[in-house]
Amino acid sequence: MRIALLASLLASPVLADDEAQSNFVADNLVAIFYHELGHALIDQLELPVLGKEEDAADILSVLLIDEVWEPQIAQEIVANTAMAYAISAAASAEEDPGFWDVHGHDMQRYFTSVCLFYGADPDNREQFAIAAELPVERAAGCPEERQLAEDSWWVYLQDLSDQAPGTALKLDAAEDEFTATVIAEEIRELNERFDLPQAIEVDIEACDQINAFYIPDESRIVMCSEFTNYLWEVAEAAEL
Asked: For this UniProt entry, which residues form the secretion signal (predicted)?
């Protein structure tokens, strides 16, 4: 049900199916990249993480989407990433739910991303929360949840933004042109906003797994081309 509701929120009479699928893939790549950047900053800034690091990286992803993008586009990105969580949860409903995993369950990640985005501007994002079926019990605390997220992350990010531009992200290698185009734009935007503790290389390459990850010893983010291919398959199967 949530997949259909979010799809209707994103629907546009001038948006062709292939463009809707492209946006779905691109938006999820953006969110994944921001998530991996969260791991990089936790490592480089030696940040205390009171909880799961994966949760902290998810939170930063939503904050950066709001920071970099205009409100309407940011809403579309969060809607598409939330949709991906819902699709993944539905696909694995009869399989191992993965409660052992370091990441939260897909539907937990779904509701957290929706809540954090809604909580930044409840008056103007009420319809978004309704479309995503955010329960009123959770919605009531989302402004406070969002403020806590900002207080936790921006105390460190503010120092990086005060000196920008400076030490930068750099796209080092890319085997997928679509992914490279998406990530290059994010790198440009982030480099204008933040002076990083040390340079971070970003590689887009085949790695025999549907994944993206940060390698601390190399100060490198890897976006696996298999992940992009998987997102295309999800978009097509969902008939976006």
From this structure: 1-16
* Residues with Cβ within 8 Å of residue 26, at least 6 apart in sequence: 178, 182
Report residue 183: phi and psi, to 5°. Answer: -70, -35
Q: Is 170 helix (H, G, I), strand (E, B) or coil?
A: strand
Residue recorded with tokens 């809707």:
20
- How does pLDDT run across 63-98, given as a tens digit for each residue? 999 999 999 999 999 999 999 999 988 877 666 656
Distance (Å) of CA 6 to CA 55, 80, 112, 212: 23, 8, 15, 25
Tokens of 171: 């796209």
Cβ(197)–Cβ(44) below 8 Å:
yes
Within 10 angstroms of residue 173's Cβ, the number of other Cβ atoms is: 12
List the chain domain ranges: 2-9+16-235
pTM of the model: 0.90
| Dihedral, CA of residue 173, residue 177, residue 180 and residue 181, to nearest 10 | 150
